[in-house]
Amino acid sequence: MAEREAAKGRVHLVGAGPGDPELLTLKAVRLLERADAVVHDRLVSAEILAMAPARARMIPVGKAAGFHSVPQERINEILAELAREGLEVVRLKGGDPFIFGRGSEEAAYLRARGIAVDICPGITSAQGAAAGTGVPLTHRGLASGVRYVTGHRQGSAPLDLDWQGLSDPATTLVIYMGATNIAEIAFHLMAAGRPGATPVMAVSGATTAAEQRHVSRLDRIGLEMRLSPLPSPVLFIVGDVVRLADAGGGERLTLSAAAIGAGAANRIAAALKGI
Amino acid sequence: MAEREAAKGRVHLVGAGPGDPELLTLKAVRLLERADAVVHDRLVSAEILAMAPARARMIPVGKAAGFHSVPQERINEILAELAREGLEVVRLKGGDPFIFGRGSEEAAYLRARGIAVDICPGITSAQGAAAGTGVPLTHRGLASGVRYVTGHRQGSAPLDLDWQGLSDPATTLVIYMGATNIAEIAFHLMAAGRPGATPVMAVSGATTAAEQRHVSRLDRIGLEMRLSPLPSPVLFIVGDVVRLADAGGGERLTLSAAAIGAGAANRIAAALKGI
Questions:
Q1: Could you give the number of structural domains in chain B?
Q2: Is A41 a catalytic residue?
Q3: Residue B113, min C-alpha distance to chain A (Å)
Q4: Residue B165 and residue B70 share a domain
Q5: One of A36, A93, A177, A240 is an active-site residue; which one?
Q6: Residue B62 has what pLDDT?
Q7: How large is the ipTM?
Q8: What pLDDT digit, counting tens, does each position of A19-72 carry?
Q9: Which SUPFAM superfamilies match (chains A, B) (predicted)?
Q10: Do B26 and A21 make contact, defined as CB atoms within 8 angstroms?
């Protein structure tokens, strides 16, 4: 690369996808392979990090069990400092940098300081979990849309979500960062009218060798996750589409009509009619 | 490949992403490169289709302007027939096969007939449009979640969406297949309480050389799209995050506070404070 170009650093916010290295985009791989520095979440796997050249500076930031995470303000500064050194910087984040994960705050910080930044999208954990389990995020007659929310609570503040809007039975609900509060979230959803028999799937480590899943219903998931929690981070998919999950080997889960309620069972039967 | 394996066909439902061939996943490329047959939407670009081997049968189905689309039932049958011939079949769909696009119906049809099927996720048009325009789908203080809906009407039926739930100002709304009905959709959203000054971005051909975008507000987008429509398909992103859009060359769009309303402007200012 020409020296003039090298003197002009740049930050690429890159989605590392849900876990499986094969779910990186071609663009993400190209950017990684020519990176001078990689600032990465601790959840990004060694296999993905190994795609960066040996000369690249590797800087772990972000959350993982047992580590203090680097404050967001400091991450912003690190990115700016590296770019000012004239480096090609890859900021590697799990999933997609523009869906949760504060990528847009990093982009705004850098742009405000005149530093070039661009975005490379990534497969979300929700998409990875859906593909791996056979649970579609939309399906005619079962879910006409999908909604991603975060179940993370800021400090001791109450969970302030749009519960009434979230109760729409025709929308698949994907809950990120909800493991700690899933009992409370389920309670609010039921109070807003979502039936207790609504199917719920919890997925941990989607698309990796460590993937674990648990299929339940809204009125039981809170207790079950307390009794036998899955390794963090856990993603929850809520809605009738969960009924279409593979049972590992390609068989459908046999959630009975009694378990999921007659109303849901009828809607599912109608949606599957003729297939 | 061993003959015994070759005799056992398989269907891979593969996301082709939003348009840019570099936004395919490594897995999608691997599956394409070893495909015996590719059954593809007409919107998938020639550059992506060229990744399949020369020997592969290429079968266009699905919608494009000026073509009659192959009925879904016939697509299902084609996939089953090819798999029964013992072929590795790639069903290539724009975006992600499990978000709209009826991938889960194809999967259910094939599984019910004992045909092996697996899913390879893809970057959605929404993610592509977000990354390309600098508009995040979530952003602290502006959007705590994101919701994908379809604005497509079945026949002459009224648009039956969860308007009250869709009016939540803290959720970014992504509308697929909404170009025909955007005026009606905007009307319903405003009637349900979403302010007329809510920013809206229409994106056509996201992540391709033909990308076009138009930034407006909820109370104007219907008329403007009628007066100067964008080439189909058009994606709409609705919410305060649109304020963060790049103006092409990396500059922010200067939507004035007057244009977007003081309430939205204040929320945006608060969210950007300290960045």
A1: 2
A2: yes
A3: 10
A4: no
A5: A177
A6: 77
A7: 0.87
A8: 999 999 999 999 999 999 999 998 899 999 999 999 999 999 976 555 667 899
A9: Tetrapyrrole methylase
A10: yes
